[in-house]
Every structure is written in structure tokens, then in C-alpha cells.
Protein 1
Amino acid sequence: MTPQRHHPVVPDLSGVPETMLWTLFQRASEAARPDPVLEDPWAMELCRRLDYPFVARFGPAYGLLAQSIALRAAAFDGVVRAFLREFPYGTVVALGEGLETAFWRVDNGRVQWLTVDLPEPLRVRETLLPAEGRRRVLACDARDPRWTGAVPPARPTLVTAQGLLMYLRPQEVRDLIALCACSFPGGGLVFDAVPRWFAAGTRRGRLRTPSGYPAPEMPWGMNADQRARLREADPRVAEVHAIPLPPGRGLVWGTLAPRLAARGPLSNRRPTVTLLRFTSR
Ligand SMILES: C[S@@+](CC[C@H](N)C(=O)[O-])C[C@H]1O[C@@H](n2cnc3c(N)ncnc32)[C@H](O)[C@@H]1O
């Protein structure tokens, strides 16, 4: 795909779907730096094409936050690339994909890619990034098991849920893990989680950007030491892997964050990325 001249797209989103513009804005801001931790030219292009008051709504993107969102995306990319090395003809299902442009970062020329999101945000994505070839889309709630019917059968499948599960209820998270384990034998699910204190803060309405934009309520949070309990969601969860963020730039993301993630009181109370692998039958 090559950038062309297009009319600006005006997204009319609120609540959780609007958060896809926030993560896009952060990745694009990081990508615009001369020394980004994640190359993402499509994120910058999409921001240019959207007629949306990013700065007025979210406040200016600041380096540490933008870098953290880009590092999270880079951690997901690493899991997807490893999956595609193992299964070059595999399928990736991106739940709640919003305006993520991971496909263009990790495409190996053979992967089948299915985007699943709610109808309104998906309309915005389709206007900007119409499905074609190996990229398909489905308007479906991730909690509705019917999306599994759109996944090509008999291909290894990796499900990604980046920036999604915190917006589900705890039982819905367990049900989704069980659904994936039962539907994709030998496959996996990679997702991120916010720590419990952070999720609780959103529920009290305490977390706002400097511009006053409130983070939507997050019913589900998980501390790092609760990972092992994810196995309880389904007996077909065979492996639980902690996925570290790649080392970033500067004192915070380059030096302190990797150390704090490894040990100390904050190691348990930070955002995490986790990969679950499922038994093959
Ligand atoms: C924080 S954004 C993350 C977007 C993208 N994954 C990223 O990391 O930039 C949350 C996304 O989840 C989608 N979403 C929220 N609830 C959903 C649900 N129940 N089923 C499917 N998608 C959902 C929203 O529409 C939005 O695109």
C-alpha cells in the first residue's frame, strides 16, 4: 500500500472505541522522532488523514508515555514474528485492533490476518485501511464466540489482544481465554494487562490526562504475580510466558524500567504482556 491523496476522515467515537485514537496518537508521536523505538510510518500517515483534535482531546503526546505504548506494540510484534517463524502460513487474529498497523510491521508475505473490532471503530479502520488480500475484517464483539467461525480452519492461530482485556469484566477475560484455548489447539493468545491499582483508579475516575481526558473504566486488572492463575481459566492453557518489553531509550525505558520489572516492589505493580500457549488437542 502506498500513501495517496485522501479526504480527511472524521471519526465519531466515544468511550472505549475512542481509545484507539489515543494509542494511535502515541505510536505516531514516537514514530515521528528521529530515534523511535518502533518504526511505524503508517501510524503517522493515519494521524495525518484523521480530522480529529488529538492534542486538544488527549493533551500533547509526551515522550515517556508515547515510548511506552510503542514498546508495548514492539513486544507484541516480537511474539507475532516468533509465531510466524514457527508457522509461516499461520493466522493472526487481532481482537480490538483499532488502528493498529502491526500487519505492515510484521508481514511475512504469507500470514492470514483477521481484524475483529466493534462496528463503529471498524468503519473508521475500513475507511483508512480497507481490507484486501490476506487482511480481512469482522465486525464482532470479542466476547461473542461467533468471531471464531471466521478464522480459517486447520491453520495455527495466534490471537492478539493489545489494549483490550482491561475493558472486559474478569469473568469475560476468563471466558475469552477458554474460548481461544478451545478454538485454537496448538495456538496462543498474547495480551497486555494493567496492574490492579491502575484499573481501580480508572473505576474511581481518578486517571485523566493533563488535558482532562478521562481513561475509560477498566474492570479488569492483573498484577504480575497473578499470571500463573491464568491457567485456571482452562485446562488447555499449557504455558504462561511473561513477555518483557524490549529495552527502550533513555534513563527510564532504557535503564530503570527493565531493572524495576525484574525485581523490587514495582515489579508486581506494573503493566504486563503475557503469552498463553494452548495444548494441541
Ligand atoms: C485501547 S484501543 C486499542 C487499539 C489497538 N489494539 C492498539 O493497541 O492501538 C481498544 C480497542 O478495543 C476495541 N474494543 C473494545 N471493546 C471491544 C469488544 N468488546 N470487542 C471487540 N473490540 C473491542 C475498541 O473498539 C478499540 O479499537
Protein 2
Amino acid sequence: MDKETLSTLEGTAKRIRRGIIEGVYHAKSGHPGGSLSIADILAYLYTKEMHINPQNPKDDTRDRLVLSKGHTAPALYATLAECGFFSPEELKTLRKIDGRLQGHPDMKNIPGVDMTTGSLGLGISAACGMALVGKTEQKDYRVYAVVGDGESEEGQVWEASMFASHYKLSNLCVILDWNGLQIDGPVEKVMNPTPHDKKLEAFGFNVISIDGHDFEQIEAAFTAAKACTDRPTAIIAKTVKGKGVSFMENQVGWHGKAPNEEEYLLALKELQ
Ligand SMILES: Cc1ncc(C[n+]2csc(CCOP(=O)(O)OP(=O)(O)O)c2C)c(N)n1
């Protein structure tokens, strides 16, 4: 990856992180930690990898993304605003009673949202359905599903995985956000779902493990996923919960809490 592309991606990811902070601060609630951990991956997917059309959000040929860990909607909204699906100003209406940007993604009202999610474990199944339709109807689109590591404790994630490999859904790419923390503590202490690589391999996935904040590795992983044509791919992305805001990094308390004014200003300063 050349220097210019890298610096553009870094700038995009920073704006996405600022959008996350703006949204959660103005809502006075929401989920910053797991939103910040996926900002680099979403920045890459939406600006480099996915075929999307902000002028026609429901374009049938578009690639689809299902944010299975739907509580991290602030990251998806900030990314969609960055791509021009709606104005970045609207991010300040997150969770407002008359606004479109609900606490969890709503495909009926928000341009660019491909699936309504929030109940953990369900989104990956919807992504499998979309991928199966794409295969059956011989369409070229790809489907991406972002799944949380805490979310991977849901049994349905594994049913969906079995389905994905049974139907050889090579147009499906699951991204497991391995940030190590869930709502109430370290994932491995709450209900240990590891080793993800061996389990996903046993379930029939092409498994790729990366640093989810390294754009070179992110690029290589999505390129390898596209090149794999006989089974679904799972990218296990090692990330830092709260990435980019020093006092939020690796702090379980920032899973679902809004910054106060002082913390908000400090976060924005760090993300300049
Ligand atoms: C079925 C279901 N059970 C419980 C919740 C409440 N909940 C919201 S976020 C969360 C923790 C998710 O952890 P993880 O998937 O690791 O997300 P991240 O750390 O990336 O934010 C839980 C239990 C939910 N949304 N859905």
C-alpha cells in the first residue's frame, strides 16, 4: 500500500472515530468502546473494498454489510456519513426520539444500513441468507458480517457458521472483532469462546488472523478472502476496544457509556 493511500485511510478512520464520539456524546448514551475498535476495518471496507452507491443505497448490485454487533451502530453511522449516505451533522441526532439514527441499526429508515440488528447472534444468520441468495441468483455482490467476540458466545453464531460452510458461501466474509472485552468483563473470563481460529476452521471457514488496526494486513486479508472461491472466509481481527481515545482503550467501563463534556473535548483533541 502506498503512503498516500495509507494516510488517506488513517484520515478517514479518524473522522469516523470523531463521528462516533460526536454521536455518543450528544446522545448522552451509546457504545463507544466496540465502535472505536472497528473504525479501521469499516474505513477500509467502505472506502476501498465494497462496491456501494450512496446515491442509490438499495442498488441491487451493491455489496452488503451486516453489523451483527448492532450496538456499535455509532461506527456504522459515522462510516455511512463519511461516504455521503447522509450528512455528518446528523450524527449528533443519535438516539434522539424524532431522529432516524436509532441506538441500533434500522434498515427501513437509515440509508446504507443493509440489516436491522441489535439482538446479538442474529445478524450473521441474515448475512448468510443474503449470501445464499447471491449465490443462487448468480449475483456478483459480496456480503460482510461484523461479529463481536462476546457475541460469538451466542449459539446461533455457530449454527450460522455451519450453514455458511454447508452452502459453500464463498461470497460471505465474517469479521470477528477480537477486542477481548464484552459488556461486563474480559471475554475469556465471562464465557470463553476461544480458540476462534481452530473452531472456525473446523466449521469449514478459510480463516485469516490479522491486526485489525493495520491497514496493510486489512487489505491483504480482504484480498485473500475474495480469492477464496470454495468456502466462506472468517477474518479474526485483533483490535483494541476504545482504540484511538487513550482513556477508553481496553477499559470495560467504556463499553456502553457516554463521555461527559471534559472527556468529549479530550477525545476530540486526541483524534485531531
Ligand atoms: C441477544 C442479546 N443479549 C444481550 C445483549 C446485550 N448486550 C449488548 S452489547 C453486549 C456485549 C457484546 O460484546 P461484544 O460482542 O464483544 O461487543 P463489543 O465488545 O465489540 O462491543 C451485550 C451482552 C444483546 N444486545 N443481545
